[in-house]
């Protein structure tokens, strides 16, 4: 691994804080729940999903199946991932959602799907994910699962802090 003969592709299952004063630090914090410290950076040292590789990847061509869906409907999205480096490697593609406005405070982003893929140097793969009502639901004020109407964002990238593609759709 040290000489590049093997290309590891592990990802962090937690966020590492920059300083002990940041604890707790996690990727799916609620909006407005982030504290800014005087003279300090409040971003984690290593974010959830962070990983190193001897190669690089690019994300392109996000296509959402629909601009609007019903609360009980599923829909598909596709996008391309290309190995832009000089050697083969694995990439762990992560899909997050963000409910732009909701009646209950929700996290800025929530991991919904991920997929590990292996690509040769210069190779491109088209990935597809299906978002279901279960992926969009939240626990409402009455403590029942609901899918609220409104705008949702799809965030795709190699880690929670490195988002490469975004798209929006509406739940009616």
Describe the structure.
The model has no long low-confidence stretch (mean pLDDT about 90). The longest helix has 4 residues, at about 135. The chain is flat, with a radius of gyration of 18 Å. Helix content is about 0%, strand content about 40%. The protein has one helix spanning about 135; strands at about 55-65, 70, 75-85, 90-100, 110-120, 125-130, 140, 145, 150-155, 165-170. Strands 2-10-9-4-5 form a 5-stranded mixed β-sheet, with no helix packed on it. Strands 1-3-6 form a 3-stranded antiparallel β-sheet. A two-stranded antiparallel sheet has the order 7-8. A hairpin with a 7-residue loop joins strand 9 (about 150-155) and strand 10 (about 165-170). By secondary structure, it is mostly beta strands. It has a domain at about 55-170: Immunoglobulins (Immunoglobulin-like).
Keywords:
172 residues; mainly beta; Immunoglobulin-like; 3-stranded antiparallel beta sheet; 2% helix; 39% strand; flat
DSSP summary: helix tally: 1
Helix content: under 10%
Poorly predicted tracts of residues: none
Tell me the structural class.
mainly beta
Kindly report the spatial arrangement of strands forming the biggest sheet. Answer: 2-10-9-4-5
**Terminal-residue CA separation:** 50 Å
What string, H for helix and E for strand, traces the elements in order?
Answer: EEEEEEHEEEE
Average pLDDT, rounded to a whole number, is: 88
Cα Rg? 18 Å
According to DSSP, the number of beta strands is 10
Overall geometric form: flat
